């Protein structure tokens, strides 16, 4: 469990690392939306190849990416099995009132690929962008909401802090479970209900630890005279370079291509 890397920043000198955080957020969103626009294996294969290419360009090791995908394995398996039974047509396998069809198998494969690719794009964004850059980028992108009196700085700060503390909470869970096991707690044997019941004693100290960390963070921010985003200056001013504009244009062209491919495929079918 301690191998979970979601929310961590991995320093590097790749093109993706050096790109403007605002461009990376927009590009990641376009890529994620394109995943849901894929309706056949050709476009889904294209998106999968794109995710592998971006991972390679960002110089993120496959081992680290697999660690990031590790926490969602259970979700992928559960979703895949569930979607097996959602499909029309002639049943290939009949299990009582449940039936597995060719369409159900196709749905389960598509859903599994979608979840994995979505997580990959999200991991690339967090691996290559510092929490400070993410906060500044989200605040910049949400500036239009200030017209409606929305405190975009607080929203961006909250989202970034929540993302940053995921590895910390995972590490805390690992420590608590190790302490429980050293006292004789059995969390690995028995059925699923017994295992769920064994996790309950972990949740209480986890909540206590989380509130304590939140309180310490509050005091630390107050000691540094943090009073929100009003009147605050930036240590690093965000400026887009020519490479950032090229990356943004290429992402938009790719997204338009996926949309056109979906429209064309729907007309052909």
TrEMBL record:
One of its GO terms (cellular component) is plasma membrane. It holds the Pfam family CbiQ. The chain crosses the membrane at residues 72-89, 109-128, 245-265. Keywords: Cell membrane, Membrane, Transmembrane, Transmembrane helix. It comes from the Bacteria. It is found in: Membrane. It is a multi-pass membrane protein. This is Energy-coupling factor transport system permease protein.
């Amino acid at each position: 469990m301690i191998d979970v890397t979601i929310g961590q920043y991995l320093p590097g000198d790749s093109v993706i690392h050096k790109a403007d955080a605002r461009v990376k957020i927009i590009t990641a969103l376009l890529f994620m939306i394109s995943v849901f626009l894929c309706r056949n294996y050709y476009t889904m294969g294209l998106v999968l190849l794109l995710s592998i290419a971006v991972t390679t360009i960002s110089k993120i090791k496959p081992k680290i990416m697999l660690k990031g995908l590790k926490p969602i394995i259970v979700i992928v398996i559960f979703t895949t099995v569930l979607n097996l039974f959602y499909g029309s047509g002639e049943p290939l396998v009949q299990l009582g009132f449940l039936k597995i069809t060719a369409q159900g198998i196709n749905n389960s494969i598509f859903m599994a690929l979608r979840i994995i690719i979505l997580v990959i794009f999200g991991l690339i964004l967090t691996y290559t962008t510092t929490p400070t850059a993410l906060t500044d980028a989200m605040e910049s992108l949400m500036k239009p909401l200030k017209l409606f009196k929305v405190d975009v700085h607080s929203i961006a700060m909250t989202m970034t802090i929540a993302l940053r503390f995921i590895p910390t909470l995972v590490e805390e869970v690992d420590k608590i479970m190790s302490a429980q096991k050293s006292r004789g707690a059995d969390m690995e044997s028995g059925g699923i209900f017994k295992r769920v019941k064994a996790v309950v004693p972990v949740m209480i100290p986890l909540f206590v630890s989380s509130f304590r960390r939140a309180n310490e963070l509050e005091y630390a921010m107050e000691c540094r005279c943090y009073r929100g985003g009003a009147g605050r200056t930036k240590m690093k001013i965000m400026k887009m370079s020519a490479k950032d504009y090229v990356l943004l244009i290429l992402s938009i062209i790719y997204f338009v291509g996926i949309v056109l491919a979906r429209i064309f495929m729907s007309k052909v079918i």
